[in-house]
Design a protein that fits this description.
Chain lengths: ~325, ~325
């Protein structure tokens, strides 16, 4: 069997994602890997369900999209799990009053709600502050964040962001005396963004002992092998969700072969079956009843100083309800 | 005073500098050429990306050098747009709306050309140019006054805004060339009949305006923590609003517009959040409200000539 990929760029735009899915369907395509963001999945979901198009997202994590029986699959666990890991990390690191600063979209709102719930269960009061996405800059929002941190007397900030907005926010936070004197915790979104590896953000990360969580199956030889091959071929480090994307493509291929015919419903049924026995760089890919990765582990990442400059490093793991650090990130 | 208000004030002044740098040339170019130019967004972006390519490919950290090169490149692009698109269309009798639509086409084309350039640069350097971190320049100081830190971007923004205002004032008020440009802006036909080389001066206006905006783009790279090929697009609402406050005619009112928009976006939203609990995600909404209000209140750019304009006109007709 020969596979022919058709690649369309949606620039993480909701509208373009829907246009692309419609365009791909008109070309007779029944299996789509992507789109990436939860807000995009929400937009394409009805069209995909109505037309029996199997959508496999490697990076959508909003818990609100965990819906059984639809045509949406996600090779990554929902943020309900990550919120547990991130809230544990913040609590374990001594945060006792937090401001959650988050994207005002499907991903950010749902993540923030779960974080609030888990932190309040631990007795940690939180104040939530959302920001609009897609702006040229976030200096004004960061100033309001500093004001909120000071007025609430918070000793930590949890940032729920993507790469560009996350980098922008951290670069401005690095210039704020208030925000440079509280602890920072961060979601998986900005992991891998080269803008975070500037000297200013690197120094800030070290000063505030910035830690983030991300979906990761630590000490997986298949992950190490993929990371090595990507570095050799493209000269870049594996960023968050790369292994989930790799497994999404593999699963799509195996499901099409197993289905025996190019039919959305047949491929969906086959996908559930092949995922039960496939083990890839992201670990065991079996889906739960909502079509999300059933078993998702979480790692802890930091920005560390090395001889070649600042780099992302996995420094811990979320295990049996607590964070276990595997190495020291900051002096 | 709300906590952290000093930083809000600094941000207000910083943004006011940026909006002046970006909007004053927009007003000057419209006043002289009568083209509502959407490529203005690309001028900002291409200025920023001149600095980014210089930094990412050859390691340049001189803002002065990046600014000079950005001025020449983007000024040249602005002149080419005029020579190859706007002037031919105007000579064929195209309406201002048609010329504006052509500028929209150029806007989109330039955006995707830049995406191609970033891909090519990535192919050769393995660096991510689609989103680039803040550049720290070696020839711009940062200051500390008492407890207040003034960043490189603040110093560079202040210097650039003051310089642009001074240069525009000197050119327009104190030189024969400036008087000729103003004559074209007031009545192009009459100016041409009087022997003023209209075509040459319009090209010169485009060159100056494009170049000045590009320098603002370079300064932006010292301010923002993540710069993308969409940076100019995401500022176009604010820049045009600032220009509309000046009626796209008055440089003085455009400057006032920059102060108004910057204060709404920084002080306004901070106060609304602190005292009324309005989320900061409403910030773009405030700009939009200002734009709509301006369009309604100020003729001739307001909707249908502006409500007060129509009201006053009706009264004067009686």
């Amino acid at each position: 069997m020969e596979f022919r990929p058709v690649i369309l760029d949606d620039a993480t735009s909701d509208e373009t994602a829907l246009q692309n899915v419609q365009s791909l369907y008109q070309q007779g395509i029944k299996v789509i890997v992507g789109p990436a963001a939860s807000s995009q999945i929400k937009v394409v979901k009805t069209y995909a369900d109505d037309n029996k198009i199997v959508i496999i997202s490697p990076s959508s994590t909003a818990p609100t999209l965990a819906i059984p029986g639809d045509f949406i699959f996600r090779t990554v666990g929902s943020d309900a799990g990550q919120a547990k890991a991130l809230s544990t990390l913040a609590y374990q690191e001594g945060a006792r009053k937090l401001v959650i600063f988050f994207r005002n979209d499907e991903y950010g709102n749902a993540f923030a709600d779960f974080l609030e719930q888990y932190l309040e269960e631990k007795g940690v009061p939180v104040s939530k502050l959302s920001y609009q996405t897609g702006l040229a800059d976030y200096a004004s929002e960061v100033a309001t964040l500093a004001s909120r941190v000071q007025s609430e007397g918070a000793n930590g900030v949890i940032l729920i962001a993507f790469d560009k907005d996350g980098a922008n926010i951290l670069s401005h936070a690095a210039e704020s005396d208030i925000l440079s004197n509280v602890r920072w915790f961060i979601s998986e979104g900005p992991h891998g963004a080269s803008e975070l590896l500037t000297a200013a953000v690197g120094r800030f990360a070290s000063k505030v002992r910035l830690y983030g969580t991300r979906p990761l199956y630590i000490a997986n030889p298949l992950y190490e092998d993929l990371a090595k091959r990507v570095e050799e071929r493209f000269g870049i480090e594996l960023a968050v969700f790369c292994e989930h994307l790799y497994d999404a493509i593999k699963l799509a291929g195996w499901a099409i072969i197993r289905a025996g015919e190019y039919d959305g419903e047949e491929i969906r049924n086959a996908l559930v079956e092949v995922a039960k026995t496939y083990y890839g760089p992201s670990g065991w890919t079996m889906f739960d009843s909502a079509g999300d990765k059933a078993q998702q582990d979480y790692g802890v990442w930091a920005i560390v100083s090395t001889a070649e400059g600042y780099k992302f490093k996995d420094v811990g793991v979320f295990e049996r309800g607590s964070i276990v650090f595997t190495e020291q990130a900051y002096p | 005073m709300i906590p952290g208000f000093v930083q809000t004030i600094i941000n207000f002044v910083q943004y006011a500098f940026f909006y002046m740098i970006f909007s004053l040339p927009l007003t000057l170019s419209y006043r002289t050429t009568k083209v509502i130019n959407f490529v203005h967004a690309n001028f900002i972006t291409y200025g920023a990306y001149t600095a980014i390519f210089l930094n990412g490919i050859v390691g340049n950290t001189s803002m002065a050098f990046a600014s000079l090169l950005a001025f020449l490149i983007v000024g040249g692009i602005a002149v080419l747009n005029n020579l190859l698109v706007f002037t031919p269309l105007q000579k064929r009798g195209s309406s201002p709306a048609m010329v504006m639509i052509s500028s929209m086409g150029l806007w989109i084309a330039y955006k995707y050309i830049l995406y191609m350039l970033t891909d090519i640069a990535h192919f050769y350097t393995y660096k991510n140019f689609v989103s680039y971190g803040r550049i720290t320049y070696s020839d711009i100081p940062s200051l500390r006054i008492g407890e207040v830190n003034l960043s490189q971007a603040f110093v560079a923004g202040m210097f650039t805004a003051i310089t642009i205002i001074l240069i525009l004032y000197l050119i327009l008020e104190k030189t024969r060339m400036g008087r000729a440009i103003r004559a074209i802006a007031d009545n192009a036909m009459l100016a041409e009949v009087s022997g003023i080389p209209r075509g040459l001066l319009i090209n010169l206006t485009w060159f100056i305006c494009g170049g000045m905006v590009a320098i603002g783009g370079v300064v932006w790279t010292s301010f923002s923590g993540a710069i993308t090929p969409e940076v100019g697009d995401s500022m176009i609402l604010q820049v045009f609003t600032t220009g509309f406050i000046g009626g796209l005619v008055s440089l003085l009112r455009t400057g006032a517009g920059a102060l108004l928009i910057a204060s709404m976006e920084n002080i306004g939203i901070a106060l609304l959040n602190a005292y009324l609990g309005i989320p900061v995600s409403f910030r773009p909404f405030l700009t939009f409200v200002t734009l709509i209000t301006t369009l309604i209140l100020f003729p001739p750019l307001g909707a249908g000539g502006g409500l007060p304009y129509r009201f006053l006109k009706r009264r004067s007709e009686k």
